[in-house]
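Any chance you'd type out a single protein's sequence alongside its tokenized fold?
>
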Amino acid sequence: MKILVTGGAGFIGSAVIRHIINNTQDEVVNIDKLTYAGNLESLSEIENSERYYFEQVDICDRTELDRIFSIYQPDAVMHLAAESHVDRSIDGPAAFIETNIIGTYTMLESARQYWNQLDQTRKSAFRFHHISTDEVYGDLEGTDDLFTETTSYEPSSPYSASKASSDHLVRAWLRTYGLPTIVTNCSNNYGPYHFPEKLIPLMILNALDGKNLPVYGDGMQIRDWLYVEDHASALYTVVTKGEIGETYNIGGHNEKANIEVVKTICSLLEELVPNKPQGVIQYKDLITYVTDRPGHDVRYAIDATKIGKELGWKPAETFESGIRKTVKWYLNNEKWWSRVLDGSYSFERLGTGTNKSEGK
């Protein structure tokens, strides 16, 4: 197959592309606007593959999207491009409305125009896979409740509301126009190449620098943690085996309170980096409780039974194995994260165009 991946320079998108290039014979066309969270260095290990193509394109630019579809003739779309940081959505929701809603609408319309002109064989094989989040479901009240594919939507933040809107658009384009769509909703991802504003990399890098480890409220917000490479394998399973019109929840079966995650990171660093920054006796002493985020959901938990039962996928990593791999990755890849922190990675975004010749 030739798969068009949107947002492929982001955290999850880059993991998906690495998975496809390293584990299949498929071709990948990566389109990414290269905003602050887009980092081509996350794709350095596969960027020279003959099966990989990059185009710097904004998913809100219909003319450019039509050109991409016309030139590359993809067999499937994996739509990951999105603004995704909750705190940023609270401070500035406009970008989330633009990218997550208008961008998804524009992708759907460009894909629909392309799909309509395919011959019947290719038309019936085409898939538009929309990658979303468990945050669209809102809060779980009980300690034993789980999000299922039929849980009603109750988004709490501008981010989750914009993703909920995009989910509805995707399903409407199937119902109204017949565009063959699939939706997946995942739990919190973590792992290599995660942008340092997110909880786990922020805690690792702050601890290494002897800075405070800020924890919202009492730190008892519970999330289901999914190792990003497990998520990538799940997404590929869905785009190749999933049924049109279906929704699949993807989770790691790892419910942890935020404070437990932070303390686990501190314990791993005690073991792996015993030589601490000056003035630090124990890494956990850096934990600082800060004012909670507005509208902060207390508990998310995914029921991933359906994807396991129907498509045969299950995560390979436990939280214990995944978080150890993650901490070790950050310890061994200072060049990557230091360039993110000092902003030098961003210069690559300027003037970046195609990775390979157009016309493929």
